[in-house]
Amino acid sequence: MEQGRRRARRRRGGRSRAVLAVAATAAWGGAVLGVAGCDAVGGDAPAPSAGGVKKAAPSPSPTPVWDTSPASVAAVGDSITRGFDACAVLTDCPEVSWATGSSEQVDSLAVRLLGPAGAAERSWNYAVTGARMADLPDQMARAVRRDPQLVAVMAGANDACRATTSAMTPVADFRADFEDAMHTLRKALPKAQVYVASVPDLKRLWSQGRTNELGKQVWKLGVCPSMLADADALDAAANERRETVRNRVEDYNKVLEEVCAEDLRCRFDGGAVYEYEFGTRQLSRWDWFHPSIDGQARLAEIAYRTVTAKRP
Q1: According to the model, what pLDDT value does residue 8 have?
Q2: Residue 177, H or E segment
Q3: Could you tell me the pTM of the whole model?
Q4: What pLDDT is recorded for position 172?
């Protein structure tokens, strides 16, 4: 009898240990599954559904460096920007200036950008007839006091228009003076924009104006003698002199392009003024060398096209 009870207890104990083993196995297996699940989804967060993946927000578009609609304009340069000989002989006529003039016949850069009223209030002309590149830093210093958003530059013709070819401004000096002017601007107005016009092809102006007798008489008063002296001479020496002037102008334009290219907020016209084929209609009827009112309008077109061009 006693032996039967012991056998029964042994059977119950075996069943209890089996149940505990199964329970322990189940509990361990659950722990393994839990750890595996944690590694799979990264922490305690539930695994994302296929449609729940968030897309990265698009990056904002960068602010353009160049503003095609500046709110104010200052001009620096020489007689061309003063409208010299466009309205009367040997006289400035700034109202027809390609850069800041108010004339409806010209539709200047300032008027195109700001409208007539805006141009009258927010454009300024600091160009001086006879100025050379060496004068540009002082002009720029006066211009920056107005805090212009755009400075229009056209200078260099008088550096080539000297009494003789040997008196022309050396290219290295021309570069140093232009860099000085740009430094003056940048020190005061680091975000101001600059439009730089190329120097016109002076030899082309000679070839167009030499057919006019009145123009040649005015030339004798001292208009660009390195190019225009002995206007009718076609000998080897005269041709070499004129070609020397033309080559120097091309060197100046290369400097303007190179210095401007170093500044993110500077645009060179790409040689558009130099390449423009001024005809007799675009030249002053008094000196047949400086731009006429129509010529000033053509310069305004080139400037506006360059300033407003959309570039990447």
Answers
A1: 46
A2: helix 171-188
A3: 0.80
A4: 98
